[in-house]
Amino acid sequence: MNKSESINKQSWMGAIFVLLLFCNSNTAAAQDADTWQHELTIYGWYAGIDGTMQFPGPAGVGSDFTVDASDILDNLSMIFMGGWQSKRNKWSIIADVVYMDVGDSGNKPVTVSGEPAIASLDMDISSWILNGAVGYDVVQTDGATLAIVGGARYMAVDVDVQAGFGGSGVEISDSEGLLDGVIGVSGVFNFNENWYLPYHADIGAGSSDLTYQLYAAIGYRFSWGDIRLGYRYLGYELDGDFIMQDMDLSGPLLGVGFRF
To answer: What is the pLDDT of residues 94-135, one digit of tens each?
Structure first.
């Protein structure tokens, strides 16, 4: 798949995702406007990227790379993060979308034919991450809820790398679309009417060898919605056909939710 095809595919996926959210909200409201509860959340995720990249070629070049959150913000081209939840009785529908376009450059430690070396790297990573799940509360009290959730996670990622090793260099562009089924738990602990602790954990596989996610936060409710401060970790373990062998995104986040 070339990069233009990947971008078109990502654009279609994003459009379909937004359409599904729109249809879901209107269908839910039509079914029972008095019992469905909806929440739209917009948040910032101060995420750092850790991972392993494997460069193909006769030199057998490999590289472990780390991009700090401060580097991501300094080189950020575009970012969008948002979430949606519809809930009625014990059933819930959860959706989440993250788009990032980040870059990093500089001298990085790499491995060439099993030996450590320093290379000049210029990297650009753009990615869509779409999460969708259905949950059912197995615990539902005034103090806490616990739902079993099942759904899917889709990640489309483009990687462009220019690497210089002394007098030689490598220039690589690679794209991948990964669709994984996930299962997990989600819920809240209520300290009182205002303060609460939301949490989520899931694990899955499919196109990737393994994907997993952990999230927890402290939140405060208002009449119009809530504010939450937390931490999110999202990991991928990939097969050997893609330039990225594994990727982890983690860091604190701040979100504002609007209920209606």
So the answer is: 999 999 998 888 887 777 666 677 778 788 889 999 999 999
Contact present, 86 and 38 (Cβ < 8 Å): yes
pLDDT above 90 coverage of the chain, percent: 49
Q: How many domains does the chain have?
A: 1
Domain that includes residue 252, residue range: 3-259
CATH number at 101 reads 2.40.128.90
pLDDT at 4: 43
pTM surpassing 0.85? no
131 vs 110: CA distance, rounded Å: 33
